[in-house]
Design a protein that fits this description.
- Keywords: Membrane, Transmembrane, Transmembrane helix.
- By secondary structure, the protein is α+β, with helices and mostly antiparallel strands.
- The chain has 5 helices and 8 strands, in the order ββααβββββααβα.
- The protein has a 5-stranded antiparallel sheet with strand order 1-5-4-3-2, covered by helices on one side.
- A hairpin with a 3-residue loop joins strand 3 and strand 4.
- It is elongated, with a radius of gyration of 20 Å.
- The chain starts with 14 loop residues before the first strand and ends with a helix.
């Protein structure tokens, strides 16, 4: 490379940025509400609705108790959606011929810029009903640093930590972000086209 930085002033080494630039050839934006509904859909089907059904059976003799219990379950789901919507930042990812900008796990953390020579593999996988872009870095230490950034400085409940670690094990990397509002296969083709442009 003829210079040590690209047009965004990004060093050609893995680095953190406050946001994903808006002028990249490949860009994945996400509506907060659509994102929240997508990532909580599995919990709605496997947790909230079964709990609501059990509570209805328990309180079947009193319609008032049933209504109150259902309202509590519904409120908990709404709070879960709002929590997910508050965490997401758009764009979730972007790429040009210099490298990939990625918000690991799609949340508030700074965007990670990985120059293409530092990317070993790109893949899309489904996890809990949500398509994820999974990035395998050439440096395994980058994976560990991403996990530390994800959990550092924030209150992480026991179940949330378990859910995050289970996701990392299933996907094989901590550098993943939900693909919401885009065709996963088309996005992968576009990213590989940028990667091959170098």
């Amino acid at each position: 490379m003829s210079s040590s930085t690209d047009r965004h002033g990004t060093l050609h080494t893995p680095s953190l940025h406050g946001r994903v630039p808006d002028d990249l050839p490949v860009l994945l934006r996400s509506n907060r509400l659509a994102y929240a509904l997508q990532v909580t859909r599995r919990r709605l089907l496997t947790v909230h609705l079964p709990v609501a059904a059990v509570l209805c059976l328990i309180a079947i003799r009193s319609w008032l108790v049933t209504v109150v219990l259902l309202a509590m379950v519904g409120l908990h789901y709404v709070v879960t959606c709002l929590d997910e919507a508050a965490k997401v930042r758009s764009p979730l990812l972007g790429a040009d011929d210099h490298g990939l900008f990625l918000r690991p796990n799609g949340v508030l953390q700074p965007a990670l810029h990985l120059p293409w020579p530092h990317v070993k593999k790109l893949a899309v996988q489904r996890d809990s009903g949500v398509w994820m872009l999974c990035v395998t870095p050439r440096d395994p230490g980058e994976d560990k640093r991403a996990q530390e950034r994800e959990t550092a400085g924030r209150f992480y409940g026991f179940w949330r930590i378990l859910r995050y670690q289970r996701t990392v094990r299933r996907l094989g990397t901590s550098l993943f972000t939900p693909i919401v509002g885009a065709d996963p296969d088309r996005l992968l083709v576009d990213l590989n086209a940028q990667r091959g442009a170098r």
